[in-house]
Amino acid sequence: MTKLAVLYVHGVEIADDRFAETAIRMLREEFGRIAGVDPDEALSIRTAFWAPVYEKRQEKLLDRMGGTRARRVFELLDRLGGAADRGSVPALLGLIASGLVRALPGVPGFHFPTLRWLVVHYLGDAITYQAGAVDRLHYDQVHRVLAAALHELALDAGPAAPLCVVAHSLGTVVTSDFFYDLQVSGGLHRGRSAGVAPMVAAELDDTPLERGETLGWLHTLGSPLALWAQRHPEFGMPITVPHPELALHHPDAGGEWINVWDPDDVIASPLRPLNDRYAEAVAEDRPVHVAPWWLGWTPLAHPFYWNDHRVVTPIATSLARAWHRLRVTTG
Question: Which residues contact 10 (CB under 8 A, 6 or more apart)?
Fold first, then answer.
């Protein structure tokens, strides 16, 4: 039987290719418990680690802002950030505490280095990713990473494997743009996009999964898509989830777009109120309180979606239901 393909797409501040290590372990455990199936038999999981597209540029900028003496501090912050994304509370507390440091010895005038590091990673990723009117290079380089991950999933799970995407923060914008371009190239949408760029298409074979036709489940976590939607008249057009072709490849698969947001996370917001098209595309804006109780009531809840059972268990449950539906259909 064809496996379920699962793709994780990270957001900003990631500097570690193990960003989804804890989240994947939790998903596998929960899926196995709920479905009663060995996850190795049922799931093929990949990550789209696009941070390296910007890494050297950001390192160069931080060097020019703080000098090479500050580089060790930034490397330490990268390690703490990576550990925090894997669910380490001590690492997050270390980042928070470092934010109180006003100056580094030997680096006069470079105040609040941790906050500057955050600005470069958070705002820098967003600004650099956003395609300009002339140069789409970085936008397309990021999408090429997603395309390569889809290709790997097609090889491992099967060319028509049903696809679930779990995306966080800016990764939800990247995911939306990537699949919108695929859907434009496939004739599903017209308008704001020219479709998939040649460098992205070069990573893809002509399979249903790689054409985006088997996209069935999208889980957007802590998404700033509402902010990005301001670029378009009446807040734009969402991608179509599930893709209409999924029902042809897997008639009983189902599918849905669930937008998970913590009301204390100022980066995240509901999507259904944007317009009628989003109200139809997004099955649910699901409010979930993530992070430990003593931290979850603050905007610092934003990094915790990946590794919170209140987020992971519903995703595993959705996949378990899909697996059993598909198993009945295909035998």
Answer: 19, 20, 47, 48, 49, 50, 51, 85, 168, 169, 171
Strand partners, 8: 47, 166
CA atoms within 13 A on the CB side of 4: 30
Task: Give residue 242's identity as a one-letter amino acid code.
Answer: P
Q: Does residue 131 sit within a domain?
A: no
Tell me the two tokens of residue 105.
């010895």
Same domain, 27 and 78: no
Which pLDDT tens digit goes with each residue over 130-179? 755 456 888 899 999 999 999 999 999 999 999 999 999 999 999 999 99
The dihedrals phi and psi of 19, each to the nearest 5 degrees, come to: -55, -30
- Its domain, for residue 93, covers 54-126
- The total number of structural domains in the chain stands at 2
For residues 298 and 164, state if they share a domain: yes
Q: Which two tokens stand for residue 283?
A: 């099955």
162 and 40 in a common domain: yes
The tens digit of pLDDT for each residue in 93-120 reads: 787 788 777 877 766 667 787 777 777 7
Q: For residue 324, what are the contacts with CB-CB under 8 A and spacing of at least 6?
A: 35
Classify 46 as helix, strand or coil.
Answer: strand
